[in-house]
Amino acid sequence: MLKIDNITKSFGGLRAVNDVSFSVNQGEIVGLIGPNGAGKTTLLNLLCGIYKVDSGSVRFEGNDITNLAPNRICHMGISRTYQIPQPFDALTALSGVTVAVINGKKRENMTLSDAGLDASYFLEFVGLFAKRDTLSRDLTLYELRMLELARALATSPRLLLLDEAMAGLNPGEASKALDMIWSAQEQFGVTILWIEHVMKVIMKAANRLVVLQYGEKIDEGPPEAVMANEQVIQAYLGGSDVND
Amino acid sequence: MVSFELKRDRILARWKKQKYEWIIEPRYWRNPILWSMLLLVVPLFITGYPNILTMITVANLYACITIPLALQMTGTGRLNFGPQLYLGLGGYTSALLNLHLGFSPFFTLVATILVCMLVSLLLSPITWIAKGLYFSLITLILPLAFLDLTFIYGSLFRGEVGLMGMSPVINLGRITWNYVSYYYLSVFMMLIFLFVAEKIAQSRFGVTMAAINENEDVALMMGVNVNKYKVFYYVFPSILTGIVGWFIVHTFRTFAGITYLPLDFMLKMLIIVMIGGRASVYGMIPGAYFVCFLEDSLRSLGTVNYFLFPLILIIVLVALPRGEGIYGLYHKRHPRDYFPVMRVRRE
Predict the structure, then answer these.
(1) Do A115 and B336 count as a contact with CB atoms less than 8 A apart?
(2) CA distance A7 to chain B (A)
(3) Collapsed DSSP state (helix, strand, coil) of residue B236
(4) Do A112 and B214 touch (CB under 8 A)?
(5) By CA distance, what is B207's nearest residue in A?
(6) Which of A68, B47, B109, B201 has its CA 20 to 30 A from that of B318?
(7) Which CATH superfamily does the domain covering A1-77+157-165+180-192+206-244 fall into?
(8) Rounded Cα gap, residues B217 and B221, in angstroms
(9) Is B215's CB within 8 Å of A48's CB?
(10) Chain B residues with CB within 8 Å of chain A CB
């Protein structure tokens, strides 16, 4: 479904993403992990067109989407959430999702009230229907993350990019959010590429893990195999010379 | 017969078996027809005071300038500090064409629209390249540069004395009737602008406009073609502002760049936008009336008004609740309404 070939991105002298290639298949949940500053978010920004790729290519369902404008990529069916929630502060939760419903696909004949009806479905799905008329700036962190999810789903994506969906949530909220993401995958048939720091969650959720370090891919495979890899342990916990 | 009864918040009138009620608090008089009727009836009582009539006409024109400006500020997500550029452009285009080439008011209107559209299309990439304070600075400079041009090419533009003697759009033969007719024309123009702006703001494009004003990058990620929207919201209000210039030329029949292009005129427009209702389209009308009345009533005090005028405005800005301006007092809050947030500085 998504095929990334040797993409590279440098900021000045720093190679943030260096020659990374992997692919995501239909219906999978792929976890993208790595220590801080490994280039995970940069990779995500490259996929959705916020940054321009220096070299390499990204293909989505057979189409080349390298360096397309973000709104074009969104129309093709890739949607994302943000690590730090970025709501439309002065818009209500419902209006924020309505914007995504109207613009996420070409829906030229959809009226505002129809879009509002659609949006309320997505809000209800993430459990925010009671907060539909609350301004986004008054929501809590968990509600903001759920609003981000609703907004991302409302653009009717086929590939969902989640950027640290669990950051800052307590264990109860995290397990609720995980259930939500699973049922989203079930109901809307989305494929998920998921950046996560909470290992417990991503080990449970992902079919496959991709590990980045210093902008390079160091391992890829099923969660258990990846966790057993010496290089990955070294990347996360430091060198083994302590034991020597 | 008819019996009246005063309740806590409303007046009840009973007649036979019918019951009518009138809520006392002004913010619940949410009837556009009522206000429009008031605007239409008032001039009939003050035909003997042409200065008041002119003042109200000017207030309507200020509203005509600021309604598109409010639309532009929310739609592009940037504060335009030079709306009067297109006022000057429209005014000079129609005045010069009328004086030198003898175009009738209708053809000067067409020419004004074309010229404003062309220039604003040429300048619209500013909305792509500049953001926040930089956009404000660029738009601030443009009308001043235009003002300088009117001085440099003084033989054509007559920068200091202004152009005079353009043909009127309506001539009823008597000065009083003309004043009244101009008043009605300005009211109709204001109502049309308000109608158009309101239709845009309440439609699906209005929600997208709000999203662009809130966070451009996130809107882009949601599939909004932000660049296209920004060009539209830059060009369309500019054309409307140009039409106001055309109107001034063909009703007041004088047009001088020195009146409309300098900074103090721009400041007045921005004050109307903020005091009227923080760029919500309805708020522009009470804002314009308030500023116009204040300016006119302080004029007789001489030079004091340079001190009093800003002082009163600052007091009003601070005292009005939630920073939502005069319209915020009247406005009944509805959860799905978007009250724009104005920020000069953006990251």
Answers:
(1) no
(2) 21
(3) helix
(4) no
(5) A99
(6) B201
(7) P-loop containing nucleotide triphosphate hydrolases (3.40.50.300)
(8) 6
(9) no
(10) 202-204, 206-208, 210-211, 214-215, 217-226, 335-336, 338-341
* Residue-wise burial string across A116-138, b where 16 or more C-beta atoms lie within 10 A, e elsewhere: bebbbebbebbebeebbebbbee
Whether residue B138 is predicted with pLDDT greater than 70 in this model: the reply is yes
From chain A, pick out residues whose CB is under 8 angstroms from the CB of B210.
88, 90-91, 95, 99
May I ask the CATH class of domain B32-330? Answer: mainly alpha
Considering the entire predicted model, what is its pTM?
A: 0.89
Contact B339 A155 (CB under 8 A): no
Average model confidence (pLDDT) across chain A: 89
Q: Where are the domains of chain B?
A: 1-30, 32-330
User: CB B336 to CB A92 under 8 A?
Assistant: yes
Tell me the per-residue pLDDT of B202-228, one tens digit each, with 9 for 90 and over: 888 989 999 999 999 999 999 999 999
In the structure encoding, which two tokens stand for residue B269, read together?
């427009």
Query: For B341, which of A80, A90, A151 is closest by C-beta distance?
Result: A90
Digit-coded pLDDT (tens) for B255-268: 888 889 988 888 88
Q: Are B210 and A88 in contact (CB < 8 Å)?
A: yes
Q: Least CA distance to A137: which residue of chain B?
A: B214
Sheet with A55-60: list strands edge to edge: A14-24, A2-11, A55-60, A63-64
Which residue among A80, A91, A115 places its CB closest to the CB of B214?
A: A91
Check CB contact under 8 Å for B204 and A133: no
How is residue A135 annotated by DSSP? Answer: B
Mean pLDDT across B162-187: 86
CB A18 within 8 A of CB A214: yes
Delimit the domains of chain A by residue range: 1-77+157-165+180-192+206-244, 87-156
- What span, in angstroms and rounded, lies between the C-alpha atoms of B72 and B94? 23
DSSP element (H, E) containing B286: helix B284-299
The chain-wide mean pLDDT, for chain B, equals 87
Which residues in B lie closer than 8 A to residue A80 (C-beta atoms)? 221
Residue with tokens 């190679």, as numbered in its chain: A15
SS3 A101: helix
